[in-house]
Amino acid sequence: MRSLQRTWPFHIMLLPAIIFLIVFSYIPMGGIVMAFQNYKPWLGITGSEWVGLDNFRFLFQREDSLQVVWNTLIIAVLKMFFNLLVPFVFAILLNEIRKVALQRSIQTLVYLPHFCRG
Fold first, then answer.
1. DSSP 32
2. CA neighbours closer than 13 Å in the CB half-sphere of residue 20
3. CA–CA separation, 88 vs 92, rounded Å?
C-alpha cells in the first residue's frame, strides 16, 4: 500500500494509454462475433441469426479459396522481406556517400515525409 501511495501519479499518467488501448484494441473485438452469424445490419449483432461455422465452411468449400490463402501468405512474406531489405540497402548506400553534408541532406529528404503525416 505504501508503494501505491508513492506511485499514484504514475498510475494516473498511465490511465489515458490504458483507455486508448481498451477503446481501440479490445472493444472492436466484439465484432468478431459477426463471423459466426448471418449478420444483418438492421438487426444488429445481438439480433442476427447464429450460424456457427457455416460461413467458414462456405468460404473454404469454394475452389479458389486455397489460392486466396496462398496468395495472402506469399504477399505477407514478400512484404516482410522487402520491408526489411530496402532500409538495409538504403543505409548501406547512404553510408558509401563520402560528403557528410550530402549524406545528411539525402537522409533528411528521405525521412522528411514521415514527419509530415497528418
1. G
2. 5
3. 6
Residues 76 and 57 in one domain: no
How many Å apart are CA 105 and CA 94, to the nearest integer?
Answer: 11
How far is 37 from 10, CA to CA, in rounded Å? Answer: 43
Domain that holds residue 87: 63-118
pLDDT 10s digits, 38-90: 999 999 888 999 999 999 999 999 999 999 999 999 999 999 999 999 999 99
User: Tens digit of pLDDT for each residue in 6-35?
Assistant: 898 999 999 999 999 999 999 999 889 999
The SS3 assignment for 102 reads helix
Per DSSP, 29 falls in state G
| Residues forming a β-bridge with 37 | 50
* Distance in angstroms (rounded) separating the CA atoms of residues 2 and 90: 52
Domain count, the chain: 2
Does 33 share its domain with 83?
A: no
